[in-house]
Amino acid sequence: MSPAAAAGRGSSPVAWLMAHTLSCPLVWGLIMLLWIMEPPRADAGNADTVSAERSMVWGPGLHAGIELPVRYFYIQAVSSRGHNFTSSPGAKIFKVTIKALSSNEYIRIHVPDPLDRNDGSYVMRYRMYGSVTEGLIIEVLHGDKHVAQSPYILKGPVYHEYCDCPEEDSHIWQQTLSCPSKETQISKDFAPFPIIDLERMLEEVPRRFAEKRGAIVHYTILNNNVYRRSLGKYTDFKMFSDEILLSLSRKVRLPDFEFYINVGDWPVEHRKANDTPGPLPMISWCGSVDSLDIILPTYDVTHSSLETLRGVTNDLLSIQGHTGPSWSNKTEQAFFRGRDSREERLQLVEMSQKYPDLLDAGITGYFFFREQEKLLGKAQLMGFFDFFKENDEKARKIAKEGQALARELLQPHRFYCYYYNVFQNYAKRQTSRPAIREKMEHVPQPTDSSAVCQCHRNKIVREEL
């Protein structure tokens, strides 16, 4: 299942939530509730002491070739009797140090304390502000003892986020990140588009979408360079598509391709696959059951992954350290805050006013529905809340399964895999060569001191069209 995998009718609540997490900000809020409310439960191992030797350390941050804005790995506390801890043995029981392998190299690395996930496991994050040639040494300690196979040696070179040094062989890059060989959602999204006619899109997209919606950005990726032009008045969010394209192209050579992304809040292509004329392969951050947009992870989770440990505190890693109350101490009430980007959100507020004991919902800012708010009808309360009140153990199990699935699918390195897979599928369906179109501008890579590094890969330079 992909990060945005679709669930069919009759799917479990967890499957449905995960299917819509990345394509619907409202459901993203609900899945985060499931994430933070899953309880730590005591087990026999918690009465024992933590064993440095038996405890486990793993994750992408222990591999030099997995280049991410913030690298991360996990620590599992294990007792001296070999039992995994399932509740926290203490927030400060592990200490991590990270430094350059060679004393001749100096590098600034932000190394916060491991985040206690309150279930016996910890997530360790670190952000590099420079690259090293020889490598890194990572020490994970419990008291004065090394944990598991510590110290961990990452043989260099090890590149930081802003080092423009892409891997030329995309297969090697995907293998290094352990990218899934197939993403069900991507296959589903591209099924209506066996070919992509760039000339047809060049003629039809501005007329159909830019004039009405005004939130379309036209990109061409050529020789691993990013070019774009804005189509419409509401394209400020191109900053988010720019940053992930630049970040990805610093890590792996992208295929040459040309595409249009909708940076608005809802999908745009509502033609059916068998319509005449047929649908266009528009890329969006949001999808629905009655649209055919090709879905990418939303800008907010992507941006927060890029900016972790540098101005963003609610990213997908940091949130794991805020697990909230135990299940037995939970408040049996749904909670929502957000702006009025969808009419259904206003209906949530109305439901909240009618059933305040079940739902606490509020709009933080009005933009789209300033006048229409008073005219909206009342939403009928469904039996959703009664189900969870009457089936507490099932609800706990759903929360646990949702948490486990979210932790697996919503890892930052999986976002890079997903983006590349979408772009690769798009590129191979093009029936003509992409081109730098009129009024397109080059989006440059950073060239300030933050981007200074020595690339040890041989870059391939191809002629541009």
Automatic annotation (TrEMBL):
GO terms for cellular component: endomembrane system. It holds the Pfam family Filamin. Pathway: Protein modification; protein glycosylation. Residues 253-433 form the Glycosyl transferase CAP10 domain. One of its GO terms (molecular function) is glucosyltransferase activity. The chain crosses the membrane at residues 15-36. The keyword Transferase applies. Belongs to the KDELC family. PANTHER family: KDEL LYS-ASP-GLU-LEU CONTAINING - RELATED, PROTEIN O-GLUCOSYLTRANSFERASE 3. This is KDEL motif-containing 2 isoform X2.
